[in-house]
# Entry
Amino acid sequence: MTTPPQAQAIAERELCGMVNGLAHRIADHVRQRAVALGLTASQATALREMTGPMTMRELAERMSCEPSNATFVIDKLEKQGLVERRAHPTDRRAKHLVLTNEGSALRERLLELLTQDSPLAALTPEQQRALQGLLEKAVAHQ
# Structure
């Protein structure tokens, strides 16, 4: 049995509204935690995404922004002594972004704050993994 197009459109609209609402709640959560640490939301996002040395392009992809925007954010973090640009080990044209000791410590504190009262905290770890799998499938669908 197939779902009538109008009912499917209504279901998709409602689902899109929920996903959008969750995205806004997560963004607000990140912004509030960033302010508590003296950071902007973009700086907090960059720190959260820096799981190890990476190029500016890799960071921009993780932040879902243009490399020029990521560069602006990294410039500020570098001035604060939280990030360093180092020679890339295999590409002379690229730089590796690396957290300083201070940057690593601040990132750890940020991650702690982000888990407190997270919009996803109502879900068990299994439910979070299931949601992640469903979202990955939806995003990958062409």
Notes: The helical segments are 5-36, 41-49, 56-63, 67-79, 101-115, 125-140. The radius of gyration is 18 Å.
